[in-house]
Amino acid sequence: MTQQVLENLQLATMSTNGMPYGMVTDGAIVIDSATIAWCGRKAQLPEEYSNWSRRDLAGRLVTPGLIDCHTHIVYGGNRAREFELRLGGASYEEITAQGGGIHATLNETRKLSVPQLVEQSLSRIDALIAEGICVIEIKSGYGLDSQTELNMLRAARQIGMERPVTVKTSFLGAHLAPTAYCDHPERYLDEVCIPALEEAADEGLVDAVDGFCENIAFSATQLERLFRRAESLGLPVKVHAEQLSNCGGARLAAKYNALSADHLEYANEDDIAALKMSDTVAVLLPGAFFSLRQSQKPPVQMLRDQGVTIAVATDCNPGSSPLNSILLAMNFSCILFELTPEEALAGTTVSAAKALGLSNMGKIKPGMTANLAVWDVASPGEIVYPMGFNPLTERIYKGQVSTKLAH
Length: 407
Ligand code: NIG
Ligand code: FE
Hints:
This protein is an alpha/beta fold. The chain is 35% helix and 23% strand. It is built from 15 helices and 15 strands.
């Protein structure tokens, strides 16, 4: 399919056209190799495309291909034991302090080679692809030594070659100070983390630099050391901010004009005011909120009032958010955080693209990459409202139908 007209479809373009979801009924899309050449009402299809080959989509709904803008999907082992401990009353912070949590995944991840990391991650990647994901962000952060951090990123790049999906990597060497450095986080940053970042950047493995700003991890001041280096390497930053307490992560994100500030349960008015002054996207992660059984919700209304862009992601990881479904992440964002289904879908398309610094994806518009998801539904709300049901019929990645599901 190099040049094709898709017709008999509805479009949720997620582009501003005065309609909710940027809807276009009785629509058509013209795909020219990997790019959307035209889209709109079929009746207005320009003459020049009239003899291109056509495909009838039987009235189905087409959205932009989905984007998961925050995952830790490359890892070894699992944390089922920790799940049991948390159900027994132990907190995430307590488990981390006792050498579990991220430390436990680190031990398992360090044991694996790059091919093993890839192999163990592919089934999780495939589950997301089957839900219409065309772009996925993958973080390091379960190595916390130079070799494993680099291996995680190499595995992420490899995944992007083995599957029809775009991978954006984030270096998360500042996830936690490993046990040997637990009382010396600055030394860890100087001796391990920053040199590992330099090496990884040198190898072309890093698209962004992330840090966990939290009592159990790094302070905003400590993270600045890393972010200054990121800046000098020309790399954008992002922050795990105000997930478990208010630690200044959102303000740090705003100061560095981060791509995103993620989690934000404990963000306050000043934090949101700071985000408003930046281009930083607020990424909400309802899977972690749900799984950690948190009660403090992110200040969604404040974000809306201040016009901060809101994205939604899985945070797929073995500990705080073992959520391997972007559809469920969208549903949870509505049920738990009171997003509208339109905000949830924007959160995994146009706003998620912004959170990854991608200007050519996330919308159906001429000139955009032809990443599309075709759903057997009559309205976009039907994508978000079921739990554990996937109405995707096909996924088009860079103009090619690459996933087909029976419906
Ligand atoms: O986004 N908050 C820090 N990082 C992850 C948790 C990682 C883990 O528990 O393994 C998160 O929730
Ligand atoms: Fe995370």
